[in-house]
Design a protein that fits this description.
The protein contains seven helices and eight strands; from the N terminus they run βαβαβαβαββαβαβα. By secondary structure, the chain is α/β, with parallel strands linked by helices. An eight-stranded parallel sheet has the order 1-8-7-6-5-4-3-2. α1 runs parallel beside α7. The structure holds D-xylitol-5-phosphate and zinc ion. The site of D-xylitol-5-phosphate has 21 residues, from β2. The site of zinc ion has 6 residues, from β2.
Length: about 240
């Protein structure tokens, strides 16, 4: 995770375990890692912020202890992020992000996450503009830009998000900041490399990238890693 401290030269594949086979979770995790995934994305849903439930903290803890050396990020799709701080403290993921519109006190939440030794980020939904981040850019370790409305995997990427990646990336350069940009939802073999070229550092891969592909998890993950690597080289 050293790379996440600064600008990443090569985009990282971050598979969402929401799409893994719950009956073969360990096997699927081993396969994505063998395929070149650099971290694991855990979607936590409370059934209120989004009308769905996904992985639990108990499952995240089990994954953490089975794969202690693999970085983990938590994507909190919850209406009361402060209520989950205790869970975060026990789990101690490498990174955690909450939706900006879920609290009126994002600064306090970001600082509470960081105080626990976890890198802190906020999430913007597809139609929420980059300008919403203006006042907190200096407090962020990363920004998670949703490519789809949160809550369900398998939705199609919202094309205007490309412009937001470019805007955020150029803002980062202009202001000489080092936060990472993560893109989540609808990432596929076509738009993923484009997102990487536009400045995304971490790409969450789900239904279109490493799960449910005909060539299997290991094969599709490694093909995706190669595809995003090439695109980064093109802009180098
Ligand atoms: C959606 C979740 C995503 C999602 C990604 O709300 O945050 O992590 O499961 O899945 P795909 O890539 O299939 O859209
Ligand atoms: Zn997610």
């Amino acid at each position: 995770m050293e790379a996440l401290k600064g600008r990443i030269e090569m985009a990282i594949l971050n598979p969402t375990l929401a799409c893994a086979d719950i009956m073969h979770l360990s096997r699927d995790i081993e396969e994505v890692i063998e395929g070149g995934a650099g971290m694991l994305h855990i979607d936590i849903m409370d059934g209120h912020y989004v009308p769905n439930i996904c992985l639990s903290f108990e499952q995240a803890r089990a994954i953490r202890s089975a794969f202690p050396h693999v970085p983990m990020d938590l994507h909190l799709m919850v209406t009361e992020p402060f209520q989950w701080l205790k869970e975060l403290e026990t789990l101690r993921p490498d990174m955690a992000a909450f939706h900006l519109d879920a609290t009126s006190f994002p600064l306090r939440m970001l600082r509470s996450i960081r105080e626990r030794g976890i890198r802190a980020g906020v999430v913007l939904n597809p139609v929420q503009p980059v300008s919403m981040l203006e006042e907190i850019l200096g407090e962020l370790d990363y920004v998670l830009l949703m490519g789809v409305e949160p809550g369900f995997s398998g939705q199609i990427f919202y094309e205007p998000v490309h412009e937001k990646i470019r805007e955020l990336s150029s803002l980062r350069t202009r202001q000489n900041r080092s936060f990472s940009i993560m893109v989540d939802g609808g990432v596929d073999f076509t738009n993923g490399p484009v997102c990487a070229r536009e400045g995304a550092d971490i790409l969450v891969g789900g239904a279109f990238v490493c799960f449910g592909q005909p060539e299997g998890i290991r094969g599709s993950a490694s093909r995706f890693v190669a595809a995003i690597d090439t695109k980064k080289e093109e802009i180098a």
